[in-house]
Amino acid sequence: MREQKDRRREPEAEADGMIEGRNAVMEALRAGTPIDKIFLARGETDATLGHIASTARDKGIVVVEADRRKLDGMSRTHAHQGVVAIAAVREYATVDDILNAAREKGEPPLIVVCDELSDPHNLGAVIRTAECAGAHGVIIPKRRSAGLTAVVAKTSAGAVSYVPVARVPNLTALLKELKDEGLWIFGTAADGDTNLYDADLKGPAAIVIGSEGDGMGRLVSQQCDFKVSIPMKGRLNSLNASAAAAILLYEAVRQRGL
Fold first, then answer.
1. Reduced to 3 states, what is the DSSP secondary structure of residue 34?
2. Distance between CA atoms of 164 and 98, rounded to whole angstroms?
3. Where are the beta strands (DSSP E) in 101-197?
4. Which residues contact 197 (CB under 8 A, 6 or more apart)?
5. Which of 87, 115, 131 is the last residue in one of the domains?
6. Which residue numbers delimit the RNA 2-O ribose methyltransferase substrate binding domain (predicted)?
7. Using CA atoms, how far apart are residues 189 and 248, in angstroms rounded to an integer?
8. Do 26 and 2 form a contact (C-beta atoms < 8 A)?
9. Spatial separation of the C-alpha atoms in residues 173 and 170, rounded to whole Å
10. pLDDT, average across residues 35-57
11. Could you give phi then psi for residue 136, rounded to 5 degrees?
12. Which residues are CB-contacts of 120 (< 8 A; sequence separation ≥ 6)?
């Protein structure tokens, strides 16, 4: 009976984009499978795991050390051998890909920058809204953020197939780069000094959505040209991150007459 249960878990793990075990992960790296993140057992000195880590880092893949108990909890096969990889559902784009997409359409860039959204459902919802609103791309940080996993793809309702998503090592540097490209940076903040309906979103714009708990980080906030507040008429003073993204994106749609 146990053997039958384990057999049922393996396809489920594959459907979730999880690759477990040293040989399976190494083969995925050799084959060029898009991988979002690799978790390695903390404190392991095994040469094979070291080779996996160095190969992954050479490819720009995020490698995270984790306690074995975390790996045990993630594992569906119960045979992870100290390594679990989370496959990405598609390859990441570059920031240039996103800017070029706007140029090709002859439109001022409209980009969503997610500052450490850790909930994959939130990221998926943002990507879905970005696609529906005609945004040219979404940018996320490499660390402390959900990536293009199967859960994100499902929540996006397939939008990950159409919206370029770039992943960068440093959001502060990224925002400076976007400014150099002529974009205005609009950060969302409850205490923002610009009312949403006073913000001019018709030109080249990057909309920054803060993390679920803490909002925008200090350094990211300092790079914003405008900090936009959404009017709150009820007893609560904040919105879900993906809802805030939707409100700003569709105000941009309204202003641009799209």
1. coil
2. 6
3. 110-114, 137-141, 165-168, 184-188, 194-195
4. 231, 251
5. 87
6. 18-93
7. 12
8. no
9. 6
10. 90
11. -90, -10
12. 146, 149, 151, 152, 155
